[in-house]
């Protein structure tokens, strides 16, 4: 993916002091740009109600002065909203409800930036995946009674859940269609590169325009991570399913990596449903559940979650949400921030990093020597 042109991207990144930074010039930092996989054959076409995102109108005839003027106009339009990101919203915050065992909060969009090892205090080594939460905002909230009448509603959801639309990575509105830009009128933030939706309960409703950062979760919380797996294109059965292939001895002609017979048998003369055969590999939505948060970095908005099996490629988007596993959800006695974390919730200065009580910190002493007795 080519780096964005200078002056054409408007992005806000939350730092440790939770102040907004307006990046007038974007460099080639990979943690700030999305490198989603785009080379693939789409197995499932988008739904009919999806809004076209990119526009076909090009700005090839604009002069440098005209581009600078349009950038200034764009900044003036969103400056009022961007300046009040971490202050109470203009209309006042919505009523904040209590957490119970049936509550489902909104999730966030993170970027998978790599895998690093960690050590427990007993010296056990394990791997963690770093997920960076950059420039997340709630774009829209739809209550359950209205969501039931929409095209994307499923009957088995009933009337228990509403929908919170979350966007990540603000960018230039000139490269998107008018219909796509209109999706952000309610929240008053610039268009986002990525949008997703989360099913939430009515007591966890979040006001549009509310920012979401790494403080949405705590050390020790358990989350589910969902993303599209790495796309491998059309592959054979040896790579796709791990089959052995045909013998490599004499008499075998050009069938070394084939699957062998596909049907036959005395019970059915055709091919059984679900037979493992060559086809498109990867590019499927998969979810890794029950991942514990071991470490939280508030300076760069990074979560350290268990394991290296988080789906998706590096620098791709990952949906992070509270776990659905009933035995690992937060207890009502120890509730998470509801419906998300707000600056006024801080009762003490925010530290740069938070560690799990069982995680070893390299600022601690690893070997202790007792004083010798005379």
Plain-language structure description:
There is one protein chain. The protein has 374 residues and is mainly β. The protein is built from 4 helices and 13 strands. Strands 1-2-11-10-7-12 form a 6-stranded antiparallel beta barrel. A hairpin with a 5-residue loop joins strand 1 and strand 2. It is globular and about 75 Å long. The N and C termini lie far apart (68 Å).
Radius of gyration (CA) equals 25 Å
Low-confidence stretches: 1-32
Quote the distance from N terminus to C terminus. 68 Å
Beta-strand residue percentage: 15-25%
Which H/E pattern describes the elements?
HEEEHEHEEEEHEEEEE
Secondary structure topology:
Layout (H helix, E strand, L loop, with lengths): L63 H20 L24 E12 L5 E9 L2 E7 L1 H4 L13 E10 L7 H5 L9 E10 L9 E2 L9 E7 L4 E3 L1 H5 L37 E3 L3 E13 L4 E5 L10 E6 L30 E3 L19
Antiparallel strand pairs: 1-2, 1-12, 2-11, 3-4, 3-6, 4-5, 7-10, 7-12, 8-9, 10-11, 10-13
Identify the notable features of this structure and list them briefly.
4-stranded antiparallel sheet; 4 helices; 6-stranded antiparallel barrel; mainly beta; single chain; 374 residues
Quick rundown:
The chain has 374 residues and is mainly β. The protein is 9% helix and 24% strand.
């Amino acid at each position: 993916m080519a780096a964005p042109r200078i002056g054409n991207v408007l992005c806000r990144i939350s730092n440790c002091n939770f102040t907004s930074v307006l990046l007038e010039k974007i460099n080639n930092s990979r943690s700030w740009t999305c490198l989603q996989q785009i080379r693939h054959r789409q197995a499932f076409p988008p739904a009919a109600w999806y809004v076209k995102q990119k526009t076909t109108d090009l700005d090839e005839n604009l002069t440098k002065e005209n581009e600078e003027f349009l950038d200034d106009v764009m900044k003036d339009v969103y400056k009022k909203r961007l300046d009040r990101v971490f202050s109470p919203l203009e209309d006042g915050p919505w009523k904040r409800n209590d957490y119970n065992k049936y509550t489902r909060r909104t999730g966030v969009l993170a970027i998978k930036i790599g895998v690093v090892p960690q050590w427990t205090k007993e010296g056990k080594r394990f791997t963690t995946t770093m997920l960076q939460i950059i420039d997340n905002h709630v774009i829209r909230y739809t209550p359950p009674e209205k969501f039931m009448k929409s095209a994307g509603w499923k009957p088995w959801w009933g009337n228990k859940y509403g929908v919170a639309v979350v966007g990540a990575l603000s960018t230039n509105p000139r490269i998107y269609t008018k219909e796509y830009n209109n999706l952000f009128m309610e929240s008053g933030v610039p268009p986002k590169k990525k949008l997703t939706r989360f099913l939430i309960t009515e007591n966890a409703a979040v006001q549009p325009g509310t920012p979401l950062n790494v403080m949405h979760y705590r050390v020790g919380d358990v989350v589910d991570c969902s993303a599209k797996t790495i796309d491998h294109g059309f592959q054979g059965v040896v790579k796709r399913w791990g089959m052995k292939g045909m013998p490599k001895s004499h008499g075998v002609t050009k069938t070394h990596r084939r699957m062998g017979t596909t049907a036959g048998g005395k019970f059915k003369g055709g091919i059984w449903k679900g037979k493992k055969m060559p086809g498109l590999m990867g590019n499927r939505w998969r979810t890794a559940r029950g991942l514990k948060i071991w470490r939280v970095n508030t300076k760069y908005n990074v979560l350290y979650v268990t394991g290296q099996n988080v789906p998706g490629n590096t620098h791709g988007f990952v949906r992070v949400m509270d776990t659905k596993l009933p035995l690992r959800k937060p207890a009502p006695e120890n509730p998470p921030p509801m419906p998300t974390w707000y600056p006024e919730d801080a009762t003490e200065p925010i530290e740069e990093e938070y560690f799990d009580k069982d995680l070893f910190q390299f600022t601690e002493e690893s070997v202790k020597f007792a004083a010798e007795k005379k």
